[in-house]
Design goal:
Layout (H helix, E strand, L loop, with lengths): L1 H4 L3 E6 L2 E6 L7 H6 L4 H11 L5 H8 L3 H13 L3 E5 L5 E5 L1 H10 L6 H4 L3
Antiparallel strand pairs: 1-2, 3-4
Helix pairs in contact: 4-5
Length: about 120
Amino acid sequence: MTLERFNLIRSKKIGKTLHYFITDVSEDYDQFKIIFLNPLIPKILEEFFKDELIKVSTIGKALDMYSGTILYHIKKMKELDLLKSAKNQVGKKIHLVNIELLKRYNDYFKEPDFSILLKGL
């Protein structure tokens, strides 16, 4: 491809799909760009921003999605360090969103815009 020969873009196969990226952006963000192509991911993150104690089944009902699908995406977000699980003082499981990572992501990419979720933090 001509654009690749001139080092304007790079291609990378992630999963079964070939994706194209601007060479000016670090390869570290490739996985994040791909995961945020799925409109469900920001919605799941938004649910955790609203309530860190929220159950997966509750998210599934709110988004009209099977809870197994939600769990699959939570696992993927944990692998990318977007989410982590911990226990609060009472011993209940909570999910924490990596705010710094979302801020850095929005420095390079404007979509999805997490500034509304990050307001007030």
